[in-house]
Amino acid sequence: MKDLNPKSLFIPENSDSRQADKVYIVIKGDELLIDNVNQNLALLNADQYKWSGMKIKREYFIGYLDNYSLYALELEMNSPFMEETSLRPFRSLLGIMPDNYFIICSRSVQLVEWYNKSKFCGSCGLKTSLHGVEKAMYCKECNNLIYPRISPCVITLVTNKEKLLLAHNKNFPSQIYSTLAGFIEVGETVEEAIQREILEEVNIEVTNCTYFGSQSWPFPNQLMLGFHAEYVTGEIKPDGEEIDVAKWFHYKSLPQVPPGRISISGKLIENYVNKLTKKDLPGFT
Ligand SMILES: [Zn+2]
């Protein structure tokens, strides 16, 4: 098994023109093959793949990892596992695998899913095939191109001076609170989506939406666009459908929130709290 190097550079690419030595990760649905010894993502070299005994449905070129060509292998349903390996849900490896491997796994899982869901043309119903140049499935009958889907979402930390608006989603497993998020509707601007989502979910009006940063969130296909926004007016009223509890929290007494290392929601919160904390320091002007 190859070591996961936190300093490795990954470059996404659509076709393998370098013909370099290959390395592989292995996927089955939303699960990844892990090395049982270190309980982390398994990165295989060509020999290990060759003698692994695994049955592979298809190989997908993902890009370049340092001087290697990186491929994702899609495991057959009934395939045996390589020795000392097992499958683990991608999501459960967040914060465990090095950060630079997140994009690799995110891209791999999404491309495999896209391929499997785009085998037929949505326009004429005939079989599609991989386009020679574009990262797209192509229908020869009607020239339809089906690109991998990315669904943009807004995720917003609403603040009112020293207080942060955090919400508990009905689907969260524990009493974890987070920022508000939602999909951008067709035809909507990002700013309109922020204002509509927050009004719908907690009945609050906001202003001064400021872009913070983004994160690919492949559960599934989401691109999270992170924003800060300021409270204008309204009493908190959770929608009861997605959000069951929403409250203002003082930055010194926050509930359990997502860790900043693995989620943009956590980063938004950390960033705001850091700004307020600096103001508290003696001598700050
Ligand atoms: Zn077609």
What does this entry look like structurally?
The strands form 3 sheets. Strands 1, 2, 3, 4, 5, 6, 7 and 8 form an 8-stranded mixed β-sheet that branches. The protein folds into 3 domains: 10-116, Alpha-Beta Complex (Nucleoside Triphosphate Pyrophosphohydrolase); 118-148, no CATH class; 151-278, Nucleoside Triphosphate Pyrophosphohydrolase, CATH 3.90.79. The longest helix is centred in the middle third of the chain and has 19 residues, at 99-117. The protein has helices at residues 46-50, 99-117, 190-202, 264-280; strands spanning 10-12, 22-28, 31-35, 40-41, 44-45, 56-65, 68-75, 85-89, 129-130, 137-138, 145-146, 151-160, 163-169, 180-183, 205-217, 222-233, 243-250. The protein is built from 4 helices and 17 strands. By secondary structure, it is of the alpha+beta class. β6 and β7 form a beta hairpin. The protein starts with 9 loop residues before the first strand and ends in a 5-residue tail after the last helix. Bound molecules: zinc ion. Zinc ion (ZN) binds next to loops.
Characteristic key phrases:
binds zinc ion; alpha+beta; Nucleoside Triphosphate Pyrophosphohydrolase; eight-stranded mixed β-sheet; six-stranded mixed β-sheet; single chain
